[in-house]
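>> received
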Amino acid sequence: MDSLITAAAHALAAGDPFGALNRVALRNDPPALALRGIAMAQLGDLDRAKLLLRQAARAFGPKEALSRARCIVAEAEIALVSRDLGWPAKTLDAARATLERHGDRVNGAHARHLEARRLLLIGRLDEAERKLGELDPDLLPPALRTAHELAIAGIAMRRLRSKTARDALARAKQAAHEADIPALTAEVESTAQALNSPAARLISGRKERPLLLDEVEALQTSEALVVDACRHVVRDAQAAIPLATRPVLFALARTLAEAWPGDVTRELLLARAFGARHADESHRARLRVEIGRLRSILHSVADISATKQGFALAPCRARDVLILARPVEEQHGAVLAFLADGEAWSSSALALALSASQRTVQRALDGLALAGKVQSVGRGRALRWMTTPVPGFTTTLLLPAPLPGG
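>> returned
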């Protein structure tokens, strides 16, 4: 490797893409193409970066498997940043195996981090944690150690483990200081700011207040009956009943909880659960059926009794009823939560992350676009959706994830 290539590689490692381009911008040999691709990625021109990396990978000879593997890892990172979650994971896994077989453990570790970050984005937290557990952070260079700790913090946030997240962020801050790369420092600060912003709202009676992640975590062990509108669960200190697949039942449970200790009229229940503006006998019959189902499902934590006006909720053991709600409630809140990271997402990537059909996601995006809450860029297969984050709210902390202990 000649001196210019070495100097350009050191510049990229230090977060200086212009310094790297000054050395290799006019060269078209495979190593220079690869370095130019990485530099363009750091500057945000992802399409040009992908093209250069693919040219470099094709130009490397049959005896240069290690160099080709490095190009594949770089392209995988671009795919992750551009939210191309359908990028072939097996290709990255094969490249990682090649790197480790040739003794390039740093880039091999980087490939593992990319795998873990992709798994984190699509909510497969156990698999992401296993990937990270295969690495010893003490053996990683500062920049990669920062990424490692940020991934750990991201998993902890999704699992509502605030202390683990804060400890990981403290280590990430120290590692970023050692790396002395402004972009890394900014990413750590952004994550720390999110951790110290409201993550949810607590509704009790007619009062509500914002909650930090620490307070949301503490609420998981509350003695109260909690109707969790973030994860669609009803729970008390001894039992948790998931209703994520029963939206009508959850709507009824939340409406009853909002009125506790009073009752709710049948008209209001019909409007909230079924969207019925004018109730007829068929609506009332359906309401009786759904209330019966809800009573049966919640029998271990609460009872539902009929009143003259409608129905009332009565906890079995708890002395209070609380509602945990998202900081900003929106019909397509889950889609907005993913877009709140400020990155440009394709509808297919959102569908994969949300475990929903692409048609469902596209309808949600169309509705949000009509409301002026999201915007599209590009055309055809290059079409991406994005929005600006909602100031002061960390909706991404409460994206769908396994319940603590579940």
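>> The longest strand covers residues 310-315.
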